[in-house]
Amino acid sequence: MKGPLEGIRVTDLSHVLAGPACTMILADLGAEVIKLEPPDGDDARQFGPFKNDQSGYFISINRNKKSVCVNLKTEEGKRILRDLIKISDVVVENFRPGTMKKLGFSYEEMKKINPGIIYCSICGFGHDTLPEYSSKPAYDMVVQGYSGLMSITGPEGGPPVRVGTSIGDLVAGHHAAIGILSALIHREKTGEGQHVDISMLDGLVYFLENAIVRYTMTGEIPGPLGTAHPTITPFQAFKTKDHYIITPIGNDKLWALFCEAIGRVDLIEHPKFKTNPLRNENKKELIPILEEIMLTKTTQEWMEIFDKYNLPYSPINTVDKVVNDPVVNYRKMVVEIDQPLVGKVKITGTPFHMSKTPGEVRTPAPLLGEHTDEVLKNLLNYTEEEIKTLREKSVIN
């Protein structure tokens, strides 16, 4: 099947995670993504785990792309980038603000080369921001802390905890892809390109939904609650005889079924627990009662009981269980690729399931510079002699 973005060409100047996450989405959806890497490659190629000197980190985020290795600090390298901009629809970069301008490739300069170009920048605090933040370095951990996310993550009363994945980078990548797709639709209507300015901080603040409105409406400063929900009770993980089980009881109908399932129908109409606002108000009294009950059976036993009552629940799966889970595999969210120099390796699949133009993992992550000659010769019409000269001058690898 052809992807919905077939015919869209992306010049990808990004590195490590936020930008590559964005361009992987576009590539999964059928765009041609040409990843420009410096002579030493994307920094992510140096991050483990490794097999045969190949980075699993890089492999996990760069499938479906082409790699062109070019030194953009040379005039000849800049010419290659200019030539690519002329034939591209989108450019993505995630350098510090000001870096691309120093190279001579700000948005203002790029749109002179290609007026319809969609230029997406991803950085920690945004390009249109306060002057003191314009060149501030930012990693995922920085924005997890700055955004307030870490202040509400972790056990109640405990120290702040980093979310277990690089969510600041990944959210920014997803928001960048949404922004690019929206800009492509706008260009289709008007012929205008534009600058898409994505901030990692914006993305995590956007995801604070309930925490921000709780503070603005009540003055309460949210803190970490472990697995518990701040305004719905019971909506958390409970320790069982052998592990844990999550019980998100999101309304009063589910509360009645839950009480039947655990053999405590007397709690259904209890004056302190009858409605969610009451349960939430009296959670310090309710939760210990439920904790004691949940300890009486194993997780599997509770799962079988909750299934009978059609209650929402989940064990807390470890990654090995997720990789081998039947529904995860049925949805093709773990796929096997044949990675050069590595062999068979399993990576995450694509979440874009569409009846006509689904996302797809078509090719493995590229070796460094694997497609340099192909792109220069077939797309940019460089001659064999020109390519040979560029390689001799160390402009390309």
The gyration radius over C-alpha positions equals: 25 Å
- The gross shape turns out to be elongated
CATH class of the largest domain: Alpha Beta
| Proportion of residues in β-strands | 5-15%
Number of helices: 17
CATH topology of the largest domain: Rossmann fold
Total domain count: 2
Question: Could you please describe the fold and organization of this structure?
Answer:
This protein is an alpha/beta fold and 397 residues long. It folds into two domains: 267 residues, Rossmann fold (3-Layer(aba) Sandwich); 77 residues, formyl-coa transferase, domain 3 (2-Layer Sandwich). It has a six-stranded parallel beta sheet, with helices on both faces. Helix 1 links the parallel strand 1 and strand 2. Helix 1 crosses helix 7 and helix 7 packs across helix 8. The relative contact order is 0.14. The model has no long low-confidence stretch (mean pLDDT 97).
Protein topology:
Elements: E1 9-12, H1 18-28, E2 32-37, E3 50-51, E4 54-55, H2 56-61, E5 65-69, H3 75-86, E6 90-93, H4 99-103, H5 107-113, E7 118-123, H6 140-146, H7 167-190, E8 194-199, H8 200-206, H9 209-218, E9 235-239, E10 244-248, H10 252-261, H11 276-281, H12 283-294, H13 299-308, E11 314-315, H14 319-323, H15 326-330, E12 334-339, E13 343-348, H16 372-379, H17 384-392
Parallel strand pairs: 1-2, 1-6, 2-5, 6-7, 7-8
Antiparallel strand pairs: 3-4, 9-10, 10-11, 12-13
Helix pairs in contact: 1-7, 7-8
Please sum up the structure shown.
This protein has about 400 residues and is α/β, with parallel strands linked by helices. The chain has 17 helices and 13 strands.
